[in-house]
C-alpha cells in the first residue's frame, strides 16, 4: 500500500507536463497499461483469459466501467469546482466502500474502523481547507466528484470479488482494457480527437501507464486478495500527502502548514484502521 501511494501520487506530476485533454490522458493511461501488461504478461495469462467464465468476465467489465466512471467524472469535476472540493469529495471513497462492503460482500467494519477512516478523511479536509468552497455554483462539480468516489469504491468491490479466484495479471489486463473501451466510447461521443498530439505527450501517456497505473492501481488491486476493499481504498487518501512532497521536489511548490496537520491525521487514521482490522482478523 505504501508503494502504491507513491506511484499513484506521481500522476498529478506527470499530468502537469501534458497539454492533452484530460479524458484523452485518462484513455491512453489505461489503454497503454493494458497493452503493456498483456505484452509482458506471463505465458499463463493467455490460458487464464481463454478459460474465463461469463460471470467473471462480466464482473471484470463492471470493474472496468467503474474505473472509467471514476476517471471521467473526477477529471470533469475539476472544470466545475475547486481542486480542494474535488479532492475532499472524491476521497470519500473509503466510507462508500465500507458501506458497499457491508451490504454486498458482507464484510462488516467495526465502529473503531469507521472512526479511524473519519480521522483520515478529516486530514484530507484540513489539507484542502485553504481552497475549500461552499459556493452553490460548484454543485455540478461536487456531484461529479462524489460519483467519482463511488466509481473508485465500486471498482475495488468488484476487484475484491474477482481477486479471490483469479490471478492478478489477467485480471488487470481485462479491467484496464474494459476501462479503456468505455473511455474510448465516451471520448468518441464527446468528439475528442484521439490523435495529433506531440510525441512528448505520448511519452507522458506511457509514463502514466507505467507508474501511477501499473505501479499504483495494480498494487492496490494486488492487496485486495488479502485486504478488504475499504482498507485498500485508504491508499488513495495517501495522495494528498505524497503529491505535495513530489510537487515540492519537481516544482518547488512549498506546502502550507495545513499539509502537515492534515497529513499526520491521514497517516494515523489509516494506520489505526488497518491495525485494528488486522487484530480483528486474528
What features would you describe in this structure?
- The chain is mostly helical.
- The protein has one domain.
- Helix content is 77%, strand content 0%.
- The chain is built from 13 helices and no strands.
- Helix 2 packs antiparallel against helix 4 and helix 6 packs across helix 8.
- The chain starts with a helix and ends with a helix.
- The model has no long low-confidence stretch (mean pLDDT 86).
Q: What is the topology?
A:
Layout: H1 2-16, H2 22-39, H3 44-51, H4 54-77, H5 83-90, H6 93-105, H7 111-128, H8 139-163, H9 168-189, H10 199-223, H11 229-232, H12 239-251, H13 257-281
Helix pairs in contact: 1-10, 1-12, 2-4, 2-9, 2-10, 4-8, 4-9, 5-7, 5-8, 6-8, 7-13
The total beta strand count reads 0
Mean pLDDT: 86
**Rg, Å, rounded:** 18 Å
State the end-to-end distance.
Answer: 20 Å
What does the largest sheet look like? none
Order of helices and strands: HHHHHHHHHHHHH
Low-confidence stretches: none
Helix/strand-derived class? mainly alpha
Helix content: over 70%
User: If helices are DSSP runs of H or I spanning 4 or more residues, what is the number of helices?
Assistant: 13
Backbone shape: globular
- The domain tally reads 1
Which range does the strand content fall in?
under 5%
Amino acid at each position: 500500500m505504501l508503494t502504491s501511494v507513491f506511484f499513484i501520487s506521481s500522476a498529478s506530476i506527470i499530468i502537469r507536463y501534458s497539454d492533452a485533454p484530460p479524458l484523452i490522458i485518462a484513455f491512453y493511461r489505461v489503454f497503454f497499461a493494458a497493452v503493456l501488461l498483456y505484452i509482458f504478461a506471463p505465458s499463463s495469462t493467455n490460458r487464464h483469459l481463454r478459460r474465463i467464465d461469463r460471470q467473471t468476465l462480466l464482473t471484470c467489465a463492471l470493474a472496468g466501467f467503474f474505473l472509467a466512471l471514476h476517471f471521467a467524472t473526477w477529471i470533469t469535476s475539476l472544470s466545475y469546482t475547486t481542486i480542494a472540493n474535488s479532492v475532499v469529495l472524491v476521497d470519500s471513497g473509503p466510507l462508500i466502500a465500507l458501506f458497499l462492503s457491508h451490504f454486498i460482500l458482507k464484510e462488516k467494519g467495526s465502529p473503531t474502523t469507521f472512526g479511524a477512516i473519519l480521522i483520515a478523511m478529516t486530514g484530507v479536509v484540513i489539507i484542502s481547507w485553504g481552497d475549500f468552497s461552499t459556493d452553490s455554483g460548484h454543485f455540478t462539480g461536487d456531484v461529479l466528484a462524489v460519483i467519482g468516489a463511488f466509481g473508485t469504491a465500486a471498482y475495488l468491490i468488484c476487484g475484491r470479488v474477482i481477486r479471490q479466484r483469479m490471478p492478478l495479471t489477467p485480471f488487470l489486463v481485462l479491467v484496464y482494457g474494459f476501462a479503456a473501451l468505455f473511455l474510448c466510447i465516451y471520448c468518441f461521443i464527446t468528439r475528442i480527437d484521439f490523435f495529433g498530439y506531440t510525441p512528448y505527450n505520448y511519452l507522458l501517456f506511457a509514463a502514466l501507464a507505467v507508474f501511477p497505473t501499473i505501479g499504483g492501481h495494480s498494487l492496490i488491486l494486488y492487496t485486495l486478495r488479502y485486504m478488504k476493499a475499504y482498507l485498500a481504498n485508504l491508499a488513495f487518501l495517501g495522495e494528498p500527502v505524497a503529491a505535495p512532497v513530489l510537487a515540492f521536489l519537481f516544482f518547488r511548490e512549498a506546502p502550507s502548514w495545513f499539509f502537515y496537520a492534515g497529513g499526520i491525521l491521514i497517516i494515523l487514521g489509516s494506520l489505526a484502521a488497518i491495525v485494528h482490522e488486522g487484530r480483528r482478523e486474528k
